[in-house]
Amino acid sequence: MADTSDFRNGFTMEWNGNIWSIIEFQHVKPGKGGAFVRTKLRNVRTGRVQDNTFRAGERVEQVRVERRTFQFLYEDDLGLHFMNAETYEQMNLPVATVQGREFIKEGATIDILVHAETEEPLSTEIPATVDLKITETEPGLKGDTATGATKPAVVESGATVNVPLFINEGDIIRVNTERGDYVTRVSTS
Q1: Mean pLDDT, the chain, integer
Q2: pTM score, whole prediction
Q3: 107 with 135: CB under 8 angstroms?
Q4: What local confidence, expressed as pLDDT, does residue 143 receive?
Q5: C-alpha dist (Å) from residue 45 to 78, 120, 145
Q6: Where does residue 189 rank: exposed (0-12), middle (13-18), buried (19+ CB within 10 A)?
Q7: HEC states along the chain?
Q8: Considering only 28-32, 67-71, 136-140, 154-158, which range has the smallest mean pLDDT?
Q9: Which domains can be identified in the chain, with CATH numbers?
């Protein structure tokens, strides 16, 4: 068991039947009344953010979470299949539990947060940007680069991204996975 004096950014705990990670915290000692700790918590499973206030000295159950690197193998009716990069053990996760699935291509590596005692996968974290090949888009027209207009393009992972008009099929682009938008064209040489 831990108490509020152990709180720090990234501290993971079990509270109200869920596993939460502290994003921000602030110890407050008002002139009148007892001290307390204001926190901003992120639900590790769902990603939902919530504010909460704890009384000073309140005890919580600390949870040990490990970040492990996995390689995405394939997707089928059972979900997404991953292989641990160190032990080569495989696991599958339902598609709905993998955030940013539309930007993961076969062979890509992601981090999976795992509950250290129960070995339960809690959440997935994909890189902030990924490089993907354009598989389908309308051809670009000469002179269309000055307007700043965009067109839809399908990338190799299956996602649709709005790209500038000068991007063609076969080009490799960098995509921001949080916002799902085009960052830049990647040089292939």
Answers
A1: 87
A2: 0.73
A3: no
A4: 61
A5: 20, 11, 42
A6: exposed
A7: CEEHHHCCCCCEEEECCEEEEEEEEEEECCCCCCCEEEEEEEECCCCCEEEEEEECCCEEEECCEEEEEEEEEEEECCEEEEEECCCCCEEEECHHHCCCHHHCCCCCEEEEEEECCCCCEEEEECCCEEEEEEEEECCCCCCCCCCCCEEEEEECCCCEEEEECCCCCCCEEEEECCCCEEEEECCCC
A8: 136-140
A9: 2-62 (2.30.30.30), 65-125 (2.40.50.140), 129-185 (2.40.50.140)
Tokens of 140: 């670009």
| Angle formed at CA 163 by CA 160 and CA 165, multiple of 5 degrees | 130
Per-residue pLDDT, averaged over 29-40, amounts to: 90
Amino acid 58 reads E
Q: Let me know: does 64 contact 116? Beta carbons within 8 Å.
A: yes
**pLDDT given at position 97:** 81
User: For residue 83, is pLDDT > 90?
Assistant: yes
Please tell me the distance from the alpha carbon of residue 34 to that of residue 176, in angstroms, as a whole number. Answer: 45
Using CA atoms, how far apart are residues 169 and 70, in angstroms rounded to an integer?
Answer: 29
